[in-house]
Amino acid sequence: MIKYIEETTDFLKEKGFENPEIGIILGTGLGQLINEIEIITEISYNHIPNFPTATVEFHKGKLIYGIIEGKKAVVMQGRFHLYEGYSLQDVTYPVRIMHKMGVKTLLVSNASGAINLNFKKGELMLIDDHINLQGGSPLAFKGVEKLGTRFTDMSAPYDQKINTKLRAIAKEKNINLHEGVYASVLGPQLETRAEYRYLKIIGADAVGMSTVPEVIVANHLDLPVAAVSVLTDECDPDHLKPIDIDEIIAMAGKAEPEMILLFKELIKSL
């Protein structure tokens, strides 16, 4: 993997990706932050050596380099998921590339369902902790100790300094920012009523199909990371209706401007 990382990083540097400070991963239906970036260069995933290719129709599949709030940033417009058939190493490979290029802070967004029924669709949740229900670890491979500590500490996976700043920005900008625990499942099927009840019992406030692998690898690399969920639906097992993916994507788009404001103000302060 070290050889692959070097090949990919060298390729991107040749394409103009120079010394980025911020890494951003944009989740399902959350691509509008791109409009806030002064784009210097962009490249499709399928043109990048050793990179996976996004297969989900609402994920664009581009790596973008540019300036946002005066900072150089590399942005994933579209991420990878286990449910697309990738390995956990594939899903997290871009985080390793961002780190190798020099990124000092990683910001992650996702669309998720609200398990905590005090949270409503269209609102945001700052992730304070997570539960990994994806059935594996992106660190469970031979030679991982050459890239970072094998037994990575996860007592505080989300950077508390960044989270404190995000709370302060939300208060200042009158953004209703909840805080809670994110459960990451394999998917791609949505949860049953019994599964939603189980998630609530074990302490989850929201559920989705991403983010946790990338956060584990960020911690493996000592890369400060923060993540915000856009809550796109309410997972009430007693009043559950058939899922409408188009409605979820539309809700993500509706709530996205507040997430963009949070990220922009945070980047300005870093």
From TrEMBL:
<feature type="domain" description="Nucleoside phosphorylase">
    <location>
        <begin position="21"/>
        <end position="268"/>
    </location>
</feature>
<dbReference type="InterPro" id="IPR000845">
    <property type="entry name" value="Nucleoside_phosphorylase_d"/>
</dbReference>
<dbReference type="InterPro" id="IPR035994">
    <property type="entry name" value="Nucleoside_phosphorylase_sf"/>
</dbReference>
<comment type="pathway">
    <text>Purine metabolism; purine nucleoside salvage.</text>
</comment>
<comment type="similarity">
    <text>Belongs to the PNP/MTAP phosphorylase family.</text>
</comment>
<dbReference type="InterPro" id="IPR011268">
    <property type="entry name" value="Purine_phosphorylase"/>
</dbReference>
<keyword id="KW-0808">Transferase</keyword>
<comment type="function">
    <text>The purine nucleoside phosphorylases catalyze the phosphorolytic breakdown of the N-glycosidic bond in the beta-(deoxy)ribonucleoside molecules, with the formation of the corresponding free purine bases and pentose-1-phosphate.</text>
</comment>
<dbReference type="Pfam" id="PF01048">
    <property type="entry name" value="PNP_UDP_1"/>
</dbReference>
<dbReference type="InterPro" id="IPR011270">
    <property type="entry name" value="Pur_Nuc_Pase_Ino/Guo-sp"/>
</dbReference>
<dbReference type="GO" id="GO:0004731">
    <property type="term" value="F:purine-nucleoside phosphorylase activity"/>
</dbReference>
<protein>
    <recommendedName>
        <fullName>Purine nucleoside phosphorylase</fullName>
        <ecNumber>2.4.2.1</ecNumber>
    </recommendedName>
</protein>
<keyword id="KW-0328">Glycosyltransferase</keyword>
